[in-house]
Amino acid sequence: MHGRYSYSGRYRRQRGVVLFVALIAVLIMTLAGVAIMRTLDSSSTLGGNLAYRQAALSNADRGVNAAFSWLMGQTATALWNDQTAFGYLSSRTLINDWTQAASWPAGQVVTLPAMNGYTVDYQIFRLCTVQGNNQPVNNPGAVNAAGQSCNTALGSVGSGSSDLGNSHGSESPQFNGNLLLHYQIVVRVSGPRNTRSYVQVIASRGVN
Questions:
Q1: How far is the CA of 83 from the CAs of 75, 96, 110, 119, 132, in angstroms?
Q2: What number of other Cβ atoms are within 10 A of residue 191's Cβ?
Q3: Who has greater pLDDT, 48 or 113?
Q4: Number of neighbours of residue 81 by Cβ within 10 angstroms
Q5: What is the pLDDT of residue 17?
Q6: What distance in Å separates the CA atoms of residue 98 and residue 104, rounded to the nearest whole number?
Q7: Is the four-CA dihedral 8, 14, 15, 17 of positive or negative sign?
Q8: Average pLDDT of span 26-48
């Protein structure tokens, strides 16, 4: 009786150890499964966010093109003063943080029709100190008159009216004397999942 009792006790202890090890194995497998699921979920989320951001940047092109088309369609004198209904200010901005809502005041921003859940807003700023021209009409140097400092550049040879606004090589040795005035275009894109993208472009066109 004593021998059978001892054997039975050892058997129960061994069975308890096996059960404990099995529980640990199940726990490890469960944690591993959760980790894999979290990894897959994180990868999917990251891929989704990148896709949304890429789509937002693509939509930003709409804003840049719309703003540039409007800018090039105006007469020189029309750009001397603000046209807030078209998102245009004739002097440079002091805004440093475009992510703030206050940087996009109502009545001073152009909003394009939404497309695929993305809304595009833009503003245009003439890179001058103050509004106006401060000089007689048809004076090419007016934009750099006293009190009216503007960001300008000379157009290269061949930069006729059809070439205005295009980029020119910094190494170009010749200039045609056509003064180009610089403008800042700022675009904001809002999309699904609180996606936000901001794009800034410097455009140029003749002062006359």
A1: 13, 22, 11, 22, 12
A2: 20
A3: 113
A4: 14
A5: 61
A6: 8
A7: positive
A8: 59
DSSP readout, the chain?
A: -HHHHHHHHHHHHHHHHHHHHHHHHHHHHHHHHHHHHHHHHHHHHHHHHHHHHHHHHHHHHHHHHHHHHHHHTS-TGGGSS-BGGGTEESS------TTSGGGS-TTS-EEEEEETTEEEEEEEEE-BSSSS--S-TT-GGGGGSTT--B-EEEEETT--GGGTTS---TT---EEEEEEEEEEEEEEEEEGGGEEEEEEEEEEEE--
Residue 163 CB partners (closer than 8 Å, separation 6+): 155
Q: What is the pTM of this model?
A: 0.65
Structure tokens at 81: 């003063």
When mean pLDDT is compared across 9-18, 56-65, 86-95, 129-138, the lowest value belongs to 9-18
What confidence score (pLDDT) does residue 191 get?
A: 86
> Domain segments of the chain: what residues?
62-206
pLDDT tens digit sequence for 108-163: 999 999 888 899 999 999 998 888 775 655 555 566 666 677 877 776 544 444 45
- Predicted confidence at residue 45, as pLDDT, reads 46
Provide the 10 A C-beta neighbour count for residue 43: 10
